[in-house]
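fyi for ur records
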Amino acid sequence: MLTPEQYDSLTELVNIGFSRAANSLSELTGDRIILNVPKVKLTTVSQMEEHLSPKYPGEVSTVHQIFKGEISGDAVLVLDSKSGLKLCDLVAQYEIGHYTEYTTEAIEVLTETGNIIMNSCLGIFGNMLNVHFTFSIPHMSVTSLKAMIQSLISGKNKNDYALLITMSFIMRDSHITGYIIMLMSISSFELLISSLSKLEEN
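which gave:
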């Protein structure tokens, strides 16, 4: 569905977006963040569970936002619950293991962290592809992967494709891995491809 050149362009955009997110988190915490180059995979929404289920056999911690504009869809930060709590510890400047469950404070920390990461990535998409996004208020939840995917399929947006973007970084000697998932309709996906082609031409 994407040419190798389009995959390269998309990966470069995501890499710039993650660098921007890392800078924002670094400014927030005062900690240095080392990013690994993200990987991007395009799949259909119906095949998304097949790709993700081996990595998430238990509950997942998610932060979900709807984005609207010329390109619209759903963006979701997905972490296994252990990584989600660890990220809360790191961002809130606690020792690892401080949070053993999602307290009100931990939910607020992960929701805001997800908001920073997804807005940074999608903001770069908007700037580079010359499209404008608005975002809904982020919503955090803990559920099974299957239930999370079902909620996205049954949501208001009709999504056909999913961009699965690996997220991996080191913060205070702790390794955090997860996914940013962008779900889009066929028309939004076609506009994304068209915008990528224009970017390549320039």
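The mean pLDDT is 90. thats all i got for now
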